[in-house]
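Batch manifest line 366
LIGAND: nicotinamide-adenine-dinucleotide
JOB: complex structure
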Amino acid sequence: MDKLGIGILGYGGFARFLHQSWSQLDEVAVVAAADSRAEANPGDMRFYDDWRKLAEDPDVAIVAIASPPATHAGLAVSLMQAGKHLLVEKPVSLSAEADSERLLHARDKAGIVVAVNHMLRFHPLLETFQSWVRDGTYGPLRHASVENYAQDETLPPDHWFWDREQSGGILIEHAVHFIDLVDTLAAAPVVRVTGAAADRSTGQRDRVLASVEYEDGLVATHYHHFSGLNSFEETHIRLAFDKLRMRLHGWIPTYGHLHALVDEATYELIQALPNWTERTLAPLDDGKARHFAATGESYSATHEVFGTFRMDQSKMEVYADLVRASMLDVVKAVRDASHKVRVPLEIGLSTVDVAERATKSAVTRD
Ligand SMILES: NC(=O)c1ccc[n+]([C@@H]2O[C@H](COP(=O)([O-])OP(=O)(O)OC[C@H]3O[C@@H](n4cnc5c(N)ncnc54)[C@H](O)[C@@H]3O)[C@@H](O)[C@H]2O)c1
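JOB STATUS: finished
ARTIFACT:
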């Protein structure tokens, strides 16, 4: 089968990673790039200094939009009108309120495939945890907490990241990954969003917080901190179910600590996690079922277990796999009209909506 041609719009840091990752796929070939900076020319394929020429290139079936956030919605509408299928980087827009109608209308009119690159949706660990939520295996998920300490050594004050007109701010530019991740674990809609923020003396808003409440009682807290040296960079995602607590490590999680109350069947599911390593397995009542009523529910379990799990691949290998899976999902939808992309515009927009509400609610000191 012929490879589908990809054009990358905005050939900066992330685009280079996408290009490298996709070059290992048989289904696609990156055939062209466009960037307003002539020096971004990678030199090994067609290059346009005006994205309109990419829109006219007949060899480009799918455009990956990887320019800064403020450009995404407008470019996406124009490219849809040019008949290109799209994989748009997150955030799909800076304002769901302002852009939803024109984006959805353009997609439906053009009849093309559009996905947003919330690639964490393809994370294999997440798929396991989603099944636990769906089946109520360890009780309801009550709290999800994201603590993300990122570095700003590579983000000088004049970088577009700090300019809210360009990026939307940290909640819209970055937290959307995790708002979306928790959303995939939520069994109910969002009912309330609040935010907080702190600015450093130079006016850069470098620490932000969002709390997202779901109709079934799940509370998610998202803290993002872009202030520190690379050596302090760390991300933890805690998930608190009634019968299981977990701490995932890394913003692309590859390993985690877990503590659970189990019976034979739920213990087997934990043992199936990658490279599961048990620290403790303790019987509760000589291995007989103990009934307990904490959390307002009644549960039973035979053992308490502590341990860790770890994926075989490195963070960068998982990251590359995720962006490949995201692109392959678009390819599948282009080839087969019955296949629906996993992250359609509607999901990208509702995630921006949550981040936008948290941003508006965040009031900082003067
Ligand atoms: N999904 C992820 O994990 C992930 C990771 C990093 C970045 N991103 C997203 O990727 C996007 C790009 O981030 P980056 O770090 O690569 O930024 P970057 O500044 O390194 O690259 C952006 C490029 O876009 C070009 N550009 C800007 N406006 C343009 C226009 N109108 N036409 C053509 N080119 C234009 C710039 O010249 C630059 O080369 C952002 O939306 C960011 O949020 C996503």
